[in-house]
Amino acid sequence: MYLQSTVKERVKVEGVGLHKGEPASITFCPAPEDTGIHFVRRDIEGEPWISPKAQFVKATQLATTLGSDYFSVSTVEHCLSAVTALRIDNLIIELSGPEIPICDGSAKDFYDALMAVGVVEQEQPRKYVRVTKPIYFGDGEKHAYIVPYNGLRVTCEIDFDHPEIGRQKIDLDVNPQSFGEEISRARTFGFQKDVDRLHAAGLALGGGYHNAVVLGEDRVMNEEGLRWQNEFVRHKALDAIGDIATLGKPLLGHIILFRAGHDLMNKLIQKLLENEDSYVEMELGAGLTDQAVVQKTLWV
Ligand SMILES: [Zn+2]
Description:
- It contains seven helices and 19 strands.
- The chain has 300 residues and is an alpha+beta fold.
- It has a single domain (3-299), classed as 2-Layer Sandwich (lpxc deacetylase, domain 1).
- α1 (77-85) packs across α2 (108-117), α1 (77-85) crosses α5 and α5 packs parallel to α6.
- Zinc ion binds at residues 77-78, 188, 235, 239.
């Protein structure tokens, strides 16, 4: 049986927010079974909360923002990426303000903090969404698919007309180890001309060389260079894994993205949820891996 899990104890991550450049912190807190993931704005009276669900995604420009009419939680995807990869089901994420800290532009600080306190199994089984029929969403040259798979797998391909990027691809089974080694440290990226434009407009004020790979016309501007030659597509996979959390349940399926970002991921998840004959909700049996259980189910 695959059981639900939460963190062993509270752990805090501090930094600045991307948009306003002001100090921001979050605290991951243990939560009882069947709670799900909740972001709580401790700085607002009444301490409103919101869960990562596709229908609560309010904006996908620059980052994924969850929100209602009177409050929001911004830049959730890097933190949720670590939570999804570590298979955490129940978690209260307390915020000091409207933004999750951008840290170094990757999921490293969130992953390290969660690994440092550890993840603990609970007593109730996990309830997976297992994709049974392919789902597609496209927009011009951008394409996104979810197809059946005995586990969680992400394939991303990007194609940028820039000498440092070009065409890059990554394909991986998502688990705590592969995420820690291959994905968690991949930073977000942007173009110098866009950074200048955003700063002039009073946006992305916390953004700079310390929390993003910044690209000039033909080179990487950061003194320290890249962490991997294909760091760009690794970060796209990181974002996609974070956006999977808006499904609201753990996914058994293979996500395939070509030139797709947060917007397409959001549409893809919504389309999956609307097509109820394309998935089943299921628990996984005792002593078997994700793969073995699904195989067994298929052979019955
Ligand atoms: Zn990102």
